[in-house]
Design brief:
Mean pLDDT: 91
CATH topology of the largest domain: D-Maltodextrin-Binding Protein, domain 2
Radius of gyration: 22 Å
CATH architecture of the largest domain: 3-Layer(aba) Sandwich
C-alpha cells in the first residue's frame, strides 16, 4: 500500500468514529513494519521473560483462549478488554491511536474495516514475525482480507462463508422446493406469500453488509483499491444481476420490512413468517440462543446461484486480530495472536461455537461430521465448508468502508421505502462514496 497523504490523514482523523490517527502516521518508524525478521527464538525468549498483553476484542471465546495461554505461559498476563463492539470499539481504538496513548497491544478488527487502519500505518506488519508463512493455512477470502502483497496486517480470526438457512417446516407445509438459483428463489417467494400473505421468503429493510456480500457472490467488484487510488462502480454486470432480481422482490413486496437483530426479526424466524436467512456460517449459535422455539425446523443449504449449476459464494462478517503499531510487547502480542488464530486456540474457539478460517479445521472429519441438533441432526458444517471453498478471493473493501456503510440507508436504503429503484440507490451510494473519498484526499474515480 502506498503512503497516505497528510490531507487524507487529517480528514479521517477529524471524524470521531473514523479517526485513524495522525500520530500513528508520521515518520517511517511509525508504520509498525520492520525489515528485521523476528525469530521464533526471540518470541520464545519474550514468553519466558513474560509481561502483560492488552487485548481489545468482543469475541467471547477469547476468554477461554486467554486463560489457556496464561496456563501455558505463566509469566504472561492477558488483559482482555471486551466492553465494546462495533462503532464504539473503532471509535475508542481510533481515538487512542490519534492521542498516541492507551493503544492496545492486540485489537480485533473486522475485515471490512481493516484497510482503514493498515492504509494509515496504524497497524504493524506481521510478516517479519513469520505470519506470511501461515498463508496456506487459511481459506482464500479471509487471507485476502488481511494481506496486501507481502505484508500481513492481521491473522484471520474467523470467517463468514454464506449459506441459505431455510425453515424446512414452512417449505414442506407449502410444498416449496429449496431454491438452487435466485430465479427459483423468486418463484419460491411468490408461492409462499400467495399461500400465506403474512409469510415472507426473507426479511430485508436494507443492509450494507448483506448487499455487498450479495454483490460479491454475483461477481460484481465495485471497489478497486491501489493505495490512495480508488474506484467505485456499481454499474457492472454482477451488480445488474443482483438489482434486477432483488428489485422484483422489493416491488412485489415479497420481503418482510424488518431489520435484523430486532425483536420482530427473532419472532419472525421463530414463527415461520420469515422463511429463509442468507448470511454467514457463524449464524447457528444465534439460532440456538435467539430462536430456541424453532429448533428442528431449520436447515442449511448452499446459497442460490445466479447461474444454474454455478458454484459461487461470498463472505459475510468475520474479523482478524491485529497488532496496532503503537502497541507494546510486540513479540508477546504476536505469540498470543498466532496461538489464538493459528494454534491450539482455534480448536478451543470452535468448541465454543466460533466458525474457523483455517483449512485444516474446515476439512477435518470431526468438524464436517458434527451433527447440529438445532438443524434436525444435519451435518451443516459440510455446507459451510464447501461455501468457504467457493468464495472468490479477489474482493476488496473501501479504505473508508465504515463511512460508506454509514450512508447506506440514505442512499440504497431509499429503494426499500420509496419509489427509488435499487439501481438508482446504488448509483447514489457510489456518487456519495466518490465525493467523500475525494474530500479525504483519496483519488477516487467511478
Amino acid at each position: 500500500m502506498r503512503r497516505t497523504t497528510g490531507r487524507l490523514l487529517r480528514g479521517l482523523a477529524a471524524l470521531s468514529v473514523l479517526a485513524l490517527g495522525a500520530t500513528a502516521c508520521g515518520s517511517s518508524d511509525d508504520s509498525g513494519s520492520s525489515t528485521k525478521a523476528v525469530s521464533s527464538a526471540d518470541i520464545q525468549a519474550a514468553l519466558k521473560k513474560g509481561g502483560t498483553v492488552t487485548v481489545w476484542s468482543w469475541e467471547p471465546t477469547l476468554k477461554t483462549v486467554a486463560a489457556d495461554f496464561q496456563k501455558k505461559y505463566p509469566k504472561v498476563k492477558i488483559n482482555l478488554v471486551s466492553a465494546r463492539s462495533g462503532d464504539k470499539h473503532y471509535t475508542a481504538l481510533s481515538n487512542a491511536i490519534s492521542a498516541g496513548k492507551g493503544v492496545p497491544d492486540v485489537a480485533q478488527i473486522e475485515y471490512f474495516a481493516l484497510s482503514q487502519y493498515s492504509l494509515t500505518k496504524g497497524l504493524s506488519d506481521l510478516a517479519p514475525y513469520g505470519a506470511s508463512k501461515l498463508a496456506s493455512k487459511y481459506t482464500a477470502g479471509p487471507w485476502n482480507a488481511v494481506s496486501d502483497g507481502a505484508k500481513v496486517y492481521g491473522l484471520p480470526m474467523d470467517s463468514g462463508p454464506m449459506a441459505m438457512f431455510y425453515n424446512k417446516k414452512v417449505f414442506d407445509k407449502y410444498k416449496i422446493a429449496v431454491p438452487t438459483t435466485w430465479d427459483e428463489y423468486l418463484v419460491a417467494a411468490r408461492k409462499l406469500h400467495k399461500a400465506d400473505p403474512k409469510a415472507y421468503i426473507a426479511n430485508d429493510a436494507g443492509d450494507a453488509g448483506f448487499t455487498t456480500s450479495m454483490l460479491w457472490q454475483a461477481g460484481s467488484r465495485p471497489y478497486k483499491v491501489d493505495g490512495t487510488k480508488v474506484s467505485v462502480n456499481f454499474q457492472d454486470a454482477g451488480a445488474k444481476k443482483y438489482t434486477e432480481t432483488w428489485q422484483k422482490l422489493i416491488d412485489e413486496k415479497l420481503l418482510a420490512p424488518i431489520n435484523g437483530w430486532t425483536d420482530d426479526w427473532y419472532k419472525g424466524l421463530g414463527d415461520g413468517t420469515i422463511a429463509t436467512l442468507t448470511t454467514g456460517a457463524w449464524m447457528p449459535a444465534n439460532f440456538v440462543t435467539g430462536v430456541p422455539n424453532a429448533s428442528g425446523d431449520w436447515r442449511a443449504a448452499a446459497m442460490p446461484q445466479w447461474t444454474k449449476g454455478g458454484k459461487a459464494s461470498a463472505e459475510n462478517g468475520g474479523s482478524s486480530l491485529t497488532l496496532p503499531a503503537l502497541g507494546k510487547n510486540k513479540e508477546l502480542a504476536y505469540a498470543f495472536v498466532e496461538y489464538a488464530n493459528s494454534g491450539a486456540g482455534v480448536q478451543t474457539r470452535i468448541s465454543e461455537g466460533a466458525f474457523p478460517a483455517t483449512k485444516a479445521e474446515l476439512q477435518s472429519p470431526s468438524f464436517q461430521n458434527t451433527e447440529f441438533k438445532y438443524f434436525g441432526g444435519q451435518k451443516a458444517n459440510q455446507v459451510f465448508a464447501q461455501s468457504a471453498a467457493d468464495v472468490a478471493s479477489d474482493w476488496s473493501y473501501l479504505p473508508f468502508q465504515q463511512y460508506a456503510n454509514s450512508i447506506f440507508n440514505d442512499t440504497v436504503g431509499k429503494a426499500y421505502i420509496s419509489g427509488t429503484s435499487l439501481a438508482d440507490g446504488l448509483k447514489a451510494w457510489q456518487d456519495a462514496s466518490v465525493k467523500y473519498g475525494n474530500e479525504q484526499g483519496f483519488t477516487v474515480s467511478k
